[in-house]
Design brief:
Elements (H helix, E strand, L loop, with lengths): L6 E8 L6 H17 L4 E3 L11 H6 L8 H13 L2 E12 L2 E9 L5 E6 L5 E3 L5 E3 L12 E4 L2 E5 L8 H9 L4 E3 L6 H19 L2 E4 L3 E3 L5 E3 L3 E3 L5 E4 L5 E8 L1 H9 L18 H6 L1
Parallel strand pairs: 1-2, 2-3, 9-10, 10-11
Antiparallel strand pairs: 1-16, 3-4, 4-5, 6-7, 8-9, 11-14, 12-13, 14-15
Helix pairs in contact: 1-3
Length: about 290
Amino acid sequence: MDATKHKFTAACVQLRAGRDVARNVDAALELIREAAGMGADLVLTPEQTALMELESAPLFASTVAEDVDPALRAIAALAGELGVWIIVGSIAIRVREDKVANRSFVISPDGSVVARYDKIHMFDVDLPGGESYRESKNYLAGNQAVAVDLPWGCVGLSICYDLRFPALYRALAQAGAHFLTVPAAFTETTGKAHWHTLLRARAIETGTFVLAAAQGGRHENGRDTYGHSMIVDPWGEIVVQAGIDPCVVSAEIDVRRVADARARIPALTHERTFTVQRAASGAGEKAAS
């Protein structure tokens, strides 16, 4: 990290992607331009920036390998044109005939991809009200956490459901991350219940800034996502947040606040190893009798 570059402006782009890749990309490019016009040095887009599709056949019909992906090419070209850092929250990238990767990309101001991260944790759940998701059916899970050095500090990458696994974020922070990205397409149900709490918790636990760009509203596939893109500071305070509709939210980030928060609560340096002892109380035997 360059010690003279302790402040920068970060922006989160909120989208409502559908099933048309070209239309989704155009919407993303327009809002990235808006973010750059607002002075953003770093722009984050949501999970599934280029396509929101749950069904296997149309998903595979609309996805290609990374080296020919039109969304990645267009966003990389725009990063070079605008001279800004862009973190593409994720794009569905074909990695096998029967699998895609939910992949995040870090793109430098010269338009080159400097890092990639494949979502580790798959969203395989059944929710109240009949909602059911099986991400592992179509997606190949990643197995490597990724942190990337930027001019202002180190950023740790994650995607959506990863948010529920605090060990990932602690590992990224202990590896040097000053900021954490959480591009997402949280369902409306889980978003209302947990989105704010989880983002604030990850910031507090790690003493980092959390940048969370989200999908929001009713999508073409009938799915409702929660929106509320936001930036959270290392003390767990929400600096700025969106509503449901597509938009840009931005804030100035002062990296020195990371060291300040960690000095006040130095939990990252207090790691201890331990074992779990499960004691038998006899209560189970009594209940059985």
